[in-house]
C-alpha cells in the first residue's frame, strides 16, 4: 500500500499539472515555488476577480484532485477506502472554498509560506478532518499543502503582486512609525542609568523565560523554544445575564482590559502565557501587533516565591529581589517606582491559588493598593478556578476571564510540536492523534498542555502502543510517571529515600480515597502527613512522614502543592483511578453504591467495577440496578464493559433494567435520559442501524441535549439518516454546539439540508465555508448587504426573515436565482408586491420553538 502522505505529495508532479492546464490560465513565470506554475484563482472569487464559480464547482475540483491522486497509486495500492476518499474530498473542498472568505492580501499569503497558508485555509474553513483515519488525514493534509503551494505560486504571477508588495512595505513602514510614536509617547525622559539597566533586565527576562521544559521525556533535550512551544489558547469572558461567553485569544486579554484575573485549571497554560507575555514585552520588537505592550517593562511575580510565611508582601522596589532576579542588585534606586508611575509596567502575578488560603485576603488588599497607587499599568493575575470566589477583584476593576480547554486543532498542533521538539518521527505523532480522536478515554485526558504532554511521553515510551481500556491506560500512565520520575530525580533527595512503585501507588491511593470520601478537591498538608504517617510503619520505609511526603511530591508527578499548606492531584482522573483501587481493597462497596447519584462519583464507581473481583463486581451491579433509579441502571449498564467476568443471570438483570430507558420511547423520556445519564448514556444509545425513524428521532434528541463533544461525535453517525425529522433535529441543534465544528462535522453532510437558524454574520460565514445552505431562517439584526454577500446565491431556495427586523423592500431577493419561497412576518401587501416574480410569499412566519 502506498503511504498516504507520500501519495499526497506525488500529486504535485503527476496530477496537478494536467488538471490546472484545464482549469487555470498561465500568466507570468512566477516565483518558482513549484516546477510547473499554475493558476487556480478561478476556483473562488478571491480578491473579487471572478464571481462565476460556485462552491459546487470547487467541490468538483477537489474531487478531481483526489481522484487523480488515487489514480497515481493504482488500484492495488489505495491508501484510503472509497468512503474515506469522499470524506477527504469534502474536507478539501471546504478548505478551498474558504479562499473566498479570506481577508488577507495575496502578498501576505505568500509571506506565510505554503505550510502556514494551508493551516490558515484549514482553520478558516472550520475543517477539522473530523472522523478521518490517520491515513485519511495525512492524505487530506498533503493534498491541501500541494494546493496551497500552487495557489501561492499563482499569487506571485499576478500583475498586481509587485505593486501590492510595495504597498505592503509602505504599510509596514507606517506601522513602525506608529509604533515608534507609541513608544515615544510612553517613554519619559530616562537617565542613562535607567535605560542601561532596562536593557540588561530585558535580556534576563528573554533568557529566563524564553524556553519551556518538555514534559515526560526520558532522553534527549528537555527544553524547547517558547516561540515553538507557545500555543495560542482561547480565554472566555462571561456575558452579563447571558448563557455562554465571548472568546478571545489569551494573549490578547490585556489588549481588551488593563486589569485581568485569568482562571484556569492545573496545566491549562496559565504560566506559559505569563512567560510569553513577559518575553514579548521584553523583546523590544514592534512587529508583533500588540501595541499595548510596546515600551513597557514586565514584572513576573510567581506568588509561591514572593510570599513568605509571616512576611509582608513586597513593594515595587523589592519585586526583583523577591523573585531572585540575578540583576536585582544593579537596579537603580527608585527605578521600579518610576516605571509604574509612568504607567509602563506589565505586572504578571502568577498563581494566587499557590499561597495559603488565609493569606489570599492579604494578597487581594496588596493588589488593590498597588493598582490604586500606580494606575495605568497592565495587570494579569492567574489562579485556579476554585481558589478564589467570583468577582474576587471586582472592587479593584479587574475583569475575570477563564482559559478554555484545548480544542481538537490545539491538541493536534501540540502533539506535532511536541514530537518535532523531541526529535520524534512525524508518523509517531500522527498515530497518537488518531488514537486520541477515536478513544474516548484519551480524548477525555487530552484537554490541556500538561496532560497532552503526558500522553505524548506515554505513547513514545511504549513505542506507539496505548491500551484501549481505561484501567490499563491509567496503569500504564502511572508506571511511566512513577518509575521514570524515580529514576530521573535521584539527585533531588540527598537522603537517598527510594520508594518502590507498588508502595508509591499504595500511599497515593490513600490520599486519593480520602479526598473522594470527603468530597474535597485538595487537602491540608497536615492531613496528608497524618495519612502517610499512619501508613509508613506498614509499608516498611526508612524515613519520616515528612520525608515520604516530600518524595511523593517531587518524584511522582501526580501530586502538587497548589498553595502553601495544601496538596492535590494534578488531574482528577488519576485521583479517581487510585481512589477506586483502595475502595475495592477496603471493601467499601456500600459507600460507592450509596453515592451513585452524584456525578463526581461516576468514574470512581466504574473504575471500582474494573478493579473488583468477579463476585464483588456482580454484587455492585445488582445493587445499582436495585436502586430503581435511572442513574443506577445506567451506571450498571456502563459497568458491564468494565467487569472482567459477569454471570449471564446478572448480565440479563442489568440489560433488562436499562432496557426500560434505552432507547427512549418518547421525547420526555429522552430528556430524562439526557439529564440522568449525561455522556454516560452515549455509550448505551443505539446507532442508526436497526432502529426505526421515530426511535432515531428520540435518540438524536437525547444526544443533542447533552451539548458535549462526545455527543457531537455520536451524532455524526446519524448525519446520513434518511428520516426527515432526524435531519431537522440535527440541523436545529447546531446553535447548541461549537458552530464551526458542528457545521463541518454534521451540517456539511446532511443530504436534505433542512432549515437552520442563523443569528449572526459569523453564522453566515460558517455556512458559506461549507458551501452554503438551501433553507435559512435569519433570526436577529441583519443588513441586506450581509445577506446578499455571505449567503451562497446558487444554493439558497428558502429564506425566512425575523419579524423583529423588518426589511425595507424585497427587490434584492432577485440576487438568488434558485429562491422559490420567502417568509417574512408582519409583511404588508405593498411589501409583498416587491417580491420578484416566481418567488412564493408566505406571511406571517409560523412560530417555531
Give a structural overview.
With 849 residues, the chain is of the alpha/beta class. The protein is 51% helix and 8% strand. The protein has 37 helices and 17 strands. The protein has a seven-stranded mixed sheet. A five-stranded parallel sheet has the order 13-14-15-16-17. Strand 11 and strand 12 form a beta hairpin. It is globular and about 85 Å long. The two termini are 52 Å apart. The model is unreliable at 5-15, 17-53, 215-221, 488-495 and 845-849 (pLDDT under 50).
Summarize the structure.
The protein is an alpha/beta fold and 849 residues long. It contains 37 helices and 17 strands.
Oligomer: single chain
Shape: globular
Helix content: 40-55%
Annotation, overall tally of beta strands? 17
Which structural class matches the secondary elements? Answer: alpha/beta
Radius of gyration: 30 Å
DSSP summary: helix tally: 37
Mean of pLDDT: 77
Keywords:
849 residues; alpha/beta; seven-stranded mixed β-sheet; five-stranded parallel β-sheet; 37 helices; disordered C terminus
Chart the SSEs and their pairings.
Elements lengths: L3 H11 L1 H8 L31 H19 L8 H16 L8 H19 L9 H24 L3 H26 L5 H18 L1 E3 L9 E3 H4 L4 E5 L6 E5 L3 H4 L2 E5 L6 H13 L14 E6 H4 L12 H4 L12 H7 L3 E6 L9 H14 L4 E6 L15 E5 L4 H14 L4 H13 L1 H6 L3 H13 L8 H19 L12 H17 L5 E2 H15 L5 H11 L3 E2 L5 E4 L2 H14 L3 H6 L7 H10 L2 H13 L3 H10 L8 H12 L7 H11 L15 H12 L4 H7 L8 H9 L6 H7 L10 E3 L2 H9 L5 E4 L5 H7 L7 E4 L19 E4 L4 H4 L7 E3 L7
Parallel strand pairs: 5-8, 5-9, 6-7, 7-8, 13-14, 14-15, 15-16, 16-17
Antiparallel strand pairs: 1-2, 3-4, 3-9, 10-12, 11-12
Helix pairs in contact: 1-3, 1-6, 3-4, 4-6, 5-6, 8-11, 16-17, 16-19, 19-20, 21-22, 21-24, 22-23, 24-26, 26-27, 27-28, 27-29, 28-29, 28-30, 30-31, 31-33
